[in-house]
Recover the amino acids of this structure.
């Protein structure tokens, strides 16, 4: 449905015993193309699509997140090496995300007609807000 695959390899820094005068600093690479990471990512996206699909016909005000379709010709990046360099170049030209609390908006990068970030209520306030909205709806219907 027009989704853009932006598999990334991200570097992480972990400081062990930061109060130590000479803390141990570990650098490692997190490959988001790993099968387990891809499965978790797909399940998170599926959850966001389900919440949007449930929220819309029930008129639940949710932080519907969308991103205008960026008509990207991936072949234009074929000269770049496959991997982090190509992914960074594609990601850089993507259009900014938008949020609408009334109705779903198309998420062109995910290729979905509607999407709500819902899976991280501990670290993202809008996810927590979405949980409250769905919870209240379910409680009073």
């Amino acid at each position: 449905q027009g989704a853009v695959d932006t598999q990334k390899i991200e570097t992480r820094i972990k400081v062990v015993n930061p109060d130590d005068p000479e803390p141990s600093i570990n650098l490692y690479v997190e490959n988001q193309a790993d099968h387990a990471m891809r499965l978790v990512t797909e399940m998170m996206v599926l959850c966001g699509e389900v919440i949007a699909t449930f929220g819309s016909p029930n008129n639940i005000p949710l932080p519907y997140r969308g991103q205008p379709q960026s008509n990207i010709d991936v072949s234009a990046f074929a000269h770049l090496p496959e991997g982090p360099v190509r992914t960074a170049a594609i990601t850089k030209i993507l259009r900014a995300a938008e949020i609408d609390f009334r109705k779903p908006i198309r998420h062109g990068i995910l290729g979905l007609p509607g999407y709500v970030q819902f899976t991280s209520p501990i670290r993202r306030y809008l996810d927590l807000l979405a949980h409250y909205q769905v919870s209240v709806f379910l409680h009073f219907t």
Q: What stands out?
A: The first strand starts at residue 9 and ends at 16.
